[in-house]
């Protein structure tokens, strides 16, 4: 039980950081609740929303990170702040 709680919380926080980065890059509002709330209470819903948002913006999920980065003219992975920003 402790292992499941620890990995679940860690995964939620990790995903929360990427969701915040996605919102920041594309100018999306943080609604109906905060990024961490979305991934903590319904992580699969959050991942599904992010997938559909990127797909609607023209990303090809089956191509992988490198092919999408080349298409966008980026050569390095995005920087994600490892600490809290608020």
UniProtKB/TrEMBL annotation:
Per its UniProt entry, which superkingdom is the organism in? Eukaryota
Q: Which InterPro entries match?
A: PLAC_motif_containing
Matching Pfam families: PLAC8 (PF04749)
Name of the protein: Uncharacterized protein
């Amino acid at each position: 039980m402790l292992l499941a709680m620890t990995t679940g919380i860690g995964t939620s926080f990790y995903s929360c950081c990427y969701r915040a980065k996605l919102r920041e890059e594309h100018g999306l509002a943080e609604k109906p609740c905060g990024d961490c709330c979305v991934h903590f209470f319904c992580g699969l819903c959050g991942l599904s929303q992010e997938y559909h948002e990127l797909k609607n913006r023209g990303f090809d999920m089956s191509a992988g990170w490198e092919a999408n980065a080349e298409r966008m003219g980026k050569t390095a992975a995005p920087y994600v702040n490892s600490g809290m920003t608020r």
